[in-house]
Specification:
2 strands; globular; mainly alpha; single chain
Length: 437
């Protein structure tokens, strides 16, 4: 039944998608995050949604140049995207032999970067920026809504183990949490009561899904959200109220087993799970020491074919005592994942790319304040939400292998789009053509 509903939904969107490159880009972004195929069990499970919308977007942009309403500018963000792409190609080409999924991950990364490079050409004004925020929040947060409903329907007994798109329970908790700052922004600017209630329900269900994962990283991510919105947000009181409301909901709904799990954060050095992560970090740094420029290849840290070669090597963390391991495991850190897979050079580019979300925030905040344009406060709040999501990613990602997921790169591109729009509004150029919604 769900396959038929999905087919009807897609057919309803077809007329819009084949006429508008921007609509195609939105659907490309949504399909990329929502991963509909993982929820289908019939004939729609094998449909390449992402490829269809990507091809539609590219064809429309190539055949109808009037669809491109933004200008191509080789700014710092684009340079870093291109450098990271080029470096990824070398990494995949020079990887250790026999690493599974090496080229698969490299190809997926390059496809996502292509999406990010196209965004400034189409996402050019407030209407389109808000539409992209909605799509990104729904695409990723939708996973959390589904699992949150299951958690409530089961009376708190449902346990989220993750899914094929987002990974295990820890990755799932981190991923769905990234949608909350965007949903909070939409809640701030929703003018009708039904939409405000809907967004509050959205954030509540995502919080319930995080509880259902029993992920300690999820708790840390939730605290990061609260800290960011209270300390860095323009409407600090609203941020504090939402944070406290969700916190109270978690306290009321979480089972005792969840609290017992969270208490283990106090003894990380005695936790076998955490020390296993440190062992993986040793192996990742050892790979990078021997391959400082291009690393070992995508998924090198957890590749069985090179595990024995680096099993007992200490890398840069020889001063930390860790237990011996008998099997390869994930890097358990976005930083060590990139370090082992792409070397020191790759890590430098990756960190610089992620950091552009914060530099964009700083520039937008300065431009809006200096210009005194109250009509651009929405942009300052939007980019603050984007930077807040990136803050959650960079903190929680310290203990997760999630460096090559899609969402964080889309956040970087979205931040750049907001910055470009504010620049144009504050310092309009005479050659700038009128932009359509």
């Amino acid at each position: 039944m769900r396959d038929i509903i999905t087919l009807v939904f897609m057919m309803g969107l077809a007329p819009l998608v084949v006429r508008s490159a921007f609509a195609s880009l939105l659907m490309w972004s949504w399909a990329n995050l929502a991963a509909l195929g993982f929820y289908m069990f019939g004939f729609m499970a094998s449909v390449p949604y992402v490829m269809i919308f990507a091809v539609s977007t590219l064809v429309l942009m190539l055949t109808q140049r009037k669809q491109i309403v933004g200008r191509w500018e080789l700014g710092g963000t684009q340079v870093l995207f291109l450098l990271f792409s080029l470096h990824a190609l070398f990494v995949a080409s020079l990887a250790y032999a026999g690493i599974e999924r090496n080229w698969e991950i490299a190809t997926n990364l390059l496809k996502n970067i292509l999406l990010c490079l196209l965004m400034p050409l189409l996402v050019v004004n407030r209407t389109r920026l808000v539409a992209m925020v909605i799509i990104m929040a729904l695409g990723l947060g939708g996973h959390g809504v589904v699992e949150g409903l299951k958690f409530l329907a089961s009376g708190g007994a449902h346990i989220v183990l993750g899914n094929a798109k987002l990974g295990d329970n820890n990755h799932f908790a981190q991923s769905v949490l990234l949608s909350v700052p965007l949903a909070f922004y939409l809640w701030q600017y929703s003018k009708t009561r039904p939409w405000r209630y809907a967004l509050l329900g959205f954030m509540f269900l995502v919080a319930m899904a995080v509880i259902a994962t029993k992920s300690r990283g999820g708790l840390i991510g939730f605290v990061c959200f609260g800290v960011w919105m209270v300390l860095m947000g323009r409407q600090k009181f609203k941020g504090l109220m939402i944070f406290l409301a969700i916190g109270l909901a978690i306290y009321a709904a979480a089972p005792s087993s969840w609290f017992e799990r969270m208490e283990t954060l106090q003894a990380a050095n005695e936790d076998a799970s955490f020390m296993g992560r440190v062992t993986a970090w040793k192996r990742a740094s050892a790979i990078a020491v021997e391959n400082p420029v291009f690393g070992g290849g995508f998924r090198a840290v957890q590749a069985p074919v090179i595990f024995e070669q680096f099993r007992y090597k200490q890398g840069m963390l020889g001063f930390v005592e860790t237990p011996n391991v008998n099997y390869p495991a994930a890097a358990h850190s976005i930083y060590f994942e990139v370090l082992g897979d792409m070397g020191f050079v790759g890590l430098l580019i990756f960190v610089a790319l992620m950091w552009t979300a914060f530099t964009a925030r700083g520039e937008v905040q300065r431009l809006v304040k200096k210009s005194g344009r109250d009509d651009l406060l929405w942009a300052a709040d939007m980019i603050n939400a984007v930077a807040g999501a990136m803050f959650i990613f960079l903190i929680t990602g310290a203990a997760l292998s999630a460096a090559f997921y899609d969402f964080q790169y889309m956040l970087v591109a979205l931040a750049d789009c907001v910055r470009r729009h504010v620049r144009e509004q504050v310092n309009p150029r005479k050659s700038t053509a009128a932009l359509r919604p």
